[in-house]
Predict the structure of VPEID-CTERM protein sorting domain-containing protein.
Amino acid sequence: MKKFAIASGLASAVSAAASVAASGAAYACAGLSCPPPVASVPEISALEGTAALAALAAIVLLTWERRRAR
């Protein structure tokens, strides 16, 4: 009977620790081991990406042309 009481006490302690850890990040997080918060990233469409690449290419070509003309 004594072994049963020890085993049931151990099982309840393990399940309590697991429920506290799963209940929220505030309980599971301790100091520097906390994961960083998830940040939302804005999506970019293909049209906006192409326009950005075209603008960058135009700047590079204009700079190259000005240096070549000197």
Q: What stands out?
A: The radius of gyration is 30 Å. The mean pLDDT is 74. DSSP finds three helices and no strands in the chain.
